[in-house]
């Protein structure tokens, strides 16, 4: 986790610096690249801070933090995933329509929001009812 945190800090600093330079080079007239680079840097910083706080509170070292570690140390269960679930497809369609709405016209967002809410609720409550309920 330490390597991931370090990498996120480095990438965040680089992308933010490159975004500021890009803004000055384009005289802040180009509004696609400059905010996107700043948002990317902000997301890298957000993840780095989150992972730093998690590492500080759990004191758990991952197998990739061990310099003498073996590949077999990272084997095991990584979580529970639903191979038969259709809800991610619905969420992907909602995100596609949302981006299309941002690119074409705002009224298209009205189609994406209910579809996204339905997909999110279906994904969250997938294991609450039915034969796969926990």
What does this structure look like?
There is one protein chain. This protein has 134 residues and is an all-alpha fold. Helices cover 62% and strands 0% of the residues. The mean pLDDT is 89. The chain has four helices and no strands.
Highlighted features:
62% helix; mainly alpha; 134 residues
Low-confidence sequence ranges:
none
**Strand composition percent:** under 5%
Termini separation: 31 Å
User: Which percent range fits the helix content?
Assistant: 55-70%
Structural class by secondary-structure content: mainly alpha
Would you count the extended β strands for me? Answer: 0
Mean of residue pLDDT?
Answer: 89
Radius of gyration: 20 Å
Order of helices and strands: HHHH
The helix tally amounts to 4
Biggest β-sheet description: none
Outline: flat
Topology summary:
Layout: H1 2-25, H2 33-58, H3 87-103, H4 109-124
Helix pairs in contact: 1-2, 3-4
